[in-house]
Design the sequence.
């Protein structure tokens, strides 16, 4: 089990994460969701959504990341 520290970002920072390969769990706000290849999530630029990706089985994953800071 690998987990990134749940965190937020300063206001005006926006992120998009696309799961390309592998499956993961997504901690997003107060929800725990399953993330499959082809699914993406948007972290809004509000500094109010803690988020973290969790690799439950240790298998390799591939992500496409886009971030914008104003």
Sequence:
């Amino acid at each position: 089990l690998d987990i990134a520290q749940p965190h937020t970002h300063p206001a005006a920072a926006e992120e998009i994460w696309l799961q390309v390969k592998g499956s993961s769990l997504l901690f997003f706000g107060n929800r725990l969701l399953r993330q499959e290849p082809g699914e993406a999530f948007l972290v809004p630029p509000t500094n109010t959504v803690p988020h973290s990706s969790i690799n439950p089985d240790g298998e390799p994953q591939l992500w496409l990341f886009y971030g914008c800071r104003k």
Remarks:
- Residues 6 and 52 are 5 Å apart (CA to CA).
